[in-house]
Specification:
186 residues, DNA polymerase, domain 1, 2 domains, 3-stranded antiparallel β-sheet, 40% helix, 12% strand
């Protein structure tokens, strides 16, 4: 497995980015730039490919520091840097658009970030009179199959933001989208 310094300069991720822009890089090459170094047995591009193989597509968004640290060559520092970059991107996207919530599908689309979590996440959308999202907040993180939320935690931000309406949602770590009896009771 060649080291990065053994790869022709024109084929290295940084040089490709400088010459052609980030959109020309593969996901592994982009991640390699963030990681900077590999190990003595695995160059940074191969390390990036291992990460993306273990966490394909949106699975990386729900990875934890512990999950990432299980990969040989990826310690807590690099795992933390990856998660920080992912969160930064998530915040930019969130700030870029004020979501318009007109249907259950809109709520579903705006809950992508909590779908694959291993614990229940209870989220509240605070909306204005035009159904524009004022704020979206994860109120509580529960267990594998339960989540305890006090009404005060839901309604205090609603009053603070002068919301016209709220929408509550939570993920099911099992992946089953059908509401439980407890969900229906609420």
């Amino acid at each position: 497995m060649p080291k990065i310094k053994d790869i022709a300069k024109v084929d290295r991720p940084r040089e490709i980015l400088e010459k052609y822009g980030p959109e020309k890089l593969s996901d592994a090459q982009l991640l390699a730039i963030l990681l900077r170094t590999g190990t003595k047995d695995c160059n940074v591009i191969e390390l990036s490919k291992k990460i993306l193989k273990k966490f394909p597509n949106e699975k990386l968004l729900s990875a934890t520091i512990e999950d990432l640290s299980e990969i040989h060559g990826l310690g807590k520092v690099k795992a933390t840097e990856i998660l920080a970059c992912l969160e930064f991107g998530r915040r930019i996207l969130k700030d870029k658009k004020s979501a318009l919530i007109l249907s259950p599908k809109d709520v579903w689309e705006n809950c992508k970030d909590i779908r694959d979590h291993k614990k229940e996440h209870f989220v509240v959308f605070y909306l204005d009179t035009r159904n524009q999202e004022i704020q979206r907040e994860i109120i509580s993180v529960g267990t594998l199959n339960a989540n305890l939320v006090h009404p005060r935690e839901v309604f205090e931000p609603a009053i603070k933001h002068s919301c016209a309406q709220i929408i509550v949602a939570h993920n099911h770590p099992s992946g089953n989208p059908e509401p439980s009896d407890d969900d229906l009771a609420i």
